[in-house]
Design brief:
five-stranded mixed beta sheet, seven-stranded mixed beta sheet, alpha/beta, 2 domains, binds S-adenosylmethionine, globular, 23% strand, Rossmann fold
Length: 260
């Protein structure tokens, strides 16, 4: 991974600079002192497209599409609804409950992993994979350090185990039946740009389609179910052997399932 630098806000304390240097070493990028430069200037001077920014209590990435940072906004609302007795389409599709184990193969901004973590609780387990090291780092940091939410949401955040890995490689190393459910939310073949909070992630996210080989491995690793989210009229469901789950009749997004 290259094409990025690590820097801080304009007046950092020592801790922020030390942390930024450590992150640069860990991720294989260069640490650059911020001084008084704008992000555009820094990008130009260092010939990079992305800036990993260390703030007082959080991390973000400045991409060509905006600032990418961890925030539990939609997950917060979904957890609130679940606590109020409403359903959640992903949770229904995964058919999971307290104590289940779930492998989320496409962490992204971590909203789905967080909702799943809330549902499976202390006795369950959520491992979430992200192929892009910058996305993995800011979401891992956010899940570990975000503090402005209710205790049940924060507890669920802390329990998500983030791994920077390609799901293709990770799945190959998993034992048969090692998770109750395996989940995929790949970048849609046809993005829903207008309604998406995912825009700042696009320059970093891996856009490659899932392969039949990945789904075969997921079938070996999942004890019960594999779920994939995609555009409701996506040809990916057929191509990869998913049946569209009931519900969400009027939504542009659908969940496909494979029972194993
Ligand atoms: C649409 S986003 C997932 C959004 C996520 N469900 C959420 O709630 O925020 C897809 C993410 O999967 C990642 N990804 C794509 N292919 C992957 C792979 N082979 N292994 C791991 N992560 C992958 C992308 O980089 C991107 O961050």
């Amino acid at each position: 991974m290259e094409n990025f630098i690590v820097t801080t806000t304009r007046k950092p304390d020592d801790t922020a600079e030390i942390f930024a240097t450590e992150l640069a070493t860990k991720l294989g990028g260069n640490f650059v002192e911020r001084e008084d430069f704008s992000f555009d200037m820094l990008k130009k001077i260092h010939g990079v497209e992305n800036i990993l920014l260390v703030k007082k209590n959080s991390l973000s990435v400045i991409t060509a599409e905006g600032e990418l940072f961890f925030h539990p906004n939609t997950a917060h609302l979904r957890i609130k609804n679940l606590r109020g007795g409403d359903g959640d389409r992903l949770i229904d599709a995964l058919k999971i409950s307290e104590g289940s184990t779930v492998l989320d193969c496409t962490l992204g901004l971590g909203s789905d992993a967080l909702v799943v973590s809330f549902v499976v609780g202390l006795r369950g387990k959520v491992v979430a994979l992200e192929i892009n090291p910058l996305i993995a780092e800011i979401v891992r940091h956010g899940l570990k350090n975000f503090s402005e939410d209710s205790p049940h949401v924060l507890d669920a955040m802390r329990r998500v185990e983030v791994v920077n890995a390609d799901c293709k490689d990770f799945l190959k190393n998993c034992a048969d039946n090692s998770f109750d459910a395996v989940y995929f939310d790949p970048m849609f073949r046809r993005p829903v740009k207008s309604s998406s909070g995912l825009n700042p992630i696009r320059p970093l996210a891996d856009n490659r389609p899932l392969t039949q080989e990945i789904i075969r491995e997921a079938c070996r690793v999942a004890k019960c179910r594999i779920v994939m989210k995609e555009h409701s009229d996506s040809a990916e469901f057929d191509r990869l052997g998913f049946t569209i789950a009931a519900g969400g009749k009027y939504s542009s997004v659908a969940f496909g399932v494979i029972d194993v």
